[in-house]
Specification:
Number of domains: 1
Number of strands: 2
Length: about 100
Amino acid sequence: MKNNSRIIPSGPFKGKKIEFAPTTGIDKFRAISEDFMNKVFGLEPGEYLISDESSLYDFTGLDEMELTDIHNKIREIYNIDVLDIKSRNLLEIFKRIGVS
């Protein structure tokens, strides 16, 4: 069994395997991700779980923020536009912040 998978021991999903998405890319941008999550969403490390597959869609509705509000906040804080990142993938956004 992989480190990032678990078998559900009981309940309606007994015996099913949960596999967590990797965080290899996010780990490379740890400082940026922590800064971003704090400044954009007001979250401290330990208050959220993100992976290489996480996106802005996962956080819409938080504090009643919509995607437009999030994009505006990113532009205001980091002076970058991420509208062209159609997947809204956080890792892709962190990479862009890292090179700006």
